Amino acid sequence: MRRTTLSTLPAIAIIAVALMSGGCSREASRAQDARMKMGTIVGITVYGKDEARAKAALEAAYVEIDRVEKLMSRYSENSEVSKLNKTGLTPFKASDELFMMLIKSIDYSEITGGAFDITVGPLMKVFRTSLEKGKAPDESAVANAASRVGFRKISLDSSSKTVVFESDGMEIDLGAIAKGYAADRAGAALKAVGAQSAIIDAGGDVLCVGSKPAGKPWTVALRNPRDPEDFLLKLAVKDLAVTTSGDYEQYFESNGKRFIHIMDPRTGKSATGCISATVIARTAMQADALSTSICVLGPSDGIKLIESIDGVEALIVSQDRKLFRSSGFSKFEAD
Ligand code: ADP
Ligand code: MG
Q1: The pTM is what?
Q2: CA nearest 101: which of 190, 169, 163, 170?
Q3: Which domains can be identified in the chain, with CATH numbers?
Q4: How many angstroms separate the alpha carbon of residue 141 from the centre of ligand 2?
Q5: How far is CA 302 from CA 225, 276, 291, in A?
Q6: Ligand 1 pocket mutation, candidates 292, 294, 297, criterion most atoms within 8 A of CB
Q7: How many angstroms is it from 287 CA to the middle of ligand 2?
Q8: Closest ligand 1 atom, CA of 295?
Q9: CB within 8 A of 233, min separation 6: which ones?
Q10: Which residues contact 101 (CB under 8 A, 6 or more apart)?
């Protein structure tokens, strides 16, 4: 059997943001929108002292998302990342921001033993071709792409902020981290214009800014990855990010095997670590990077990784549909 499914369902549903308790709050005005950005739907809700301020904060957040997209998008030919990918073996002078992203990405590669690797670009091209055809990728195409993957082949010069690829045909892809980073930046942008209470959902990468207007935590509901009508559980969080990565967002099946858009850089094949991984962290970027990494690592190594990092928690749905929680995850679970 062959089946191609491209689901646009966000992994995380934000619920109850619209419910305010009886007008007891001073921050009572709300601005809300959902716009297509970075290849997904980015929903933002901001509370402000009045309507004009809430709206201004909402717009400031979207402006920032557009700016990050221009820098990091793999879809736009003119993004800085696309320009870097076209330079081949020639040194590339990066902006401070992109350079910082590369350094952080390599840090995630180091701490995840290479499960996280932004040099998966060539493998993603092979994946997208097979997704279109609904057919398992060609072994030789995978091997060829895999030979151009490896974070250790990115050479960074901190003083000149230049990047050099050590192997021809390398391509970086910030897809596992850019939406989280964009959510963080959008959160900072709306805070800079005075907003203190907001929720940003960048296609499953959720940043909760502050708390709900009455000081209550935000509720983030986690969808059941095998039943979009159902929820696994609800989280109550303040000033934290929650992201989910999984095998049900972009995938196809061929001969009973599921091919997903997260690659195991060590094999060049689609990751098979788990059905989904949800991470709670202080920044959406960290949560984004770690949730993708766990999809490669699986429950056992995934939980070990989370326990080794301060201030992060995770919930993993294993291939056999069991739930694995890190030691402090339950304290965020709402009734
Ligand atoms: P989503 O973008 O659906 O929220 P993720 O955050 O898990 O999901 O990111 C998946 C994207 O990350 C892929 O589409 C690809 O661009 C990139 N990617 C795939 N595998 C890896 C990997 N092992 N390490 C880093 N980035 C990856
Ligand atoms: Mg991610």
Answers
A1: 0.93
A2: 163
A3: 2-71+177-332 (3.10.520.10), 80-165 (1.10.3980.10)
A4: 25
A5: 18, 11, 9
A6: 292
A7: 7
A8: 7
A9: 221, 222, 315, 333, 334
A10: 72, 174, 177, 178, 181
How far away, in angstroms, is 177 Cα from ligand 1 center?
Answer: 7
234/81 Cα distance (integer angstroms):
36
Please say if the pLDDT value at position 17 is more than 60. Answer: no
Instruction: Using the atom order of ligand 1, give the atom closest to the CA of residue 244.
Output: 4
- State whether the beta carbon of 124 lies less than 6 angstroms from ligand 1: yes
Q: List C-alpha distances in Å: 269 to 128, 129, 158, 203.
A: 13, 14, 32, 24
Strands (DSSP E) along the chain, which ranges? Answer: 2-6, 12-14, 29-37, 40-48, 92-93, 154-157, 162-165, 197-202, 205-209, 218-224, 227-237, 241-246, 250-254, 257-260, 263-264, 269-270, 276-281, 313-317, 323-325
What's the pLDDT tens digit per position in 195-240?
Answer: 999 999 999 899 999 999 989 999 999 999 888 888 999 999 999 9
Per-residue model confidence (pLDDT) at position 25: 52
Residue among 82, 120, 267 to mutate when testing ligand 1 (max atoms within 8 A of CB): 120
Shortest-distance atom of ligand 1 to CA 288? 6
| CA of 262 relative to ligand 2 center, distance in Å | 9
Overall residue count recorded for the chain in this entry: 335
Q: Which of 57, 334, 5 is nearest to 210 (CA)?
A: 57
Q: What is the bridge-based pairing of β-strands 218-224 and 205-209?
A: unpaired
Q: How far, in Å, is the centroid of ligand 2 from the Cα of 310?
A: 19
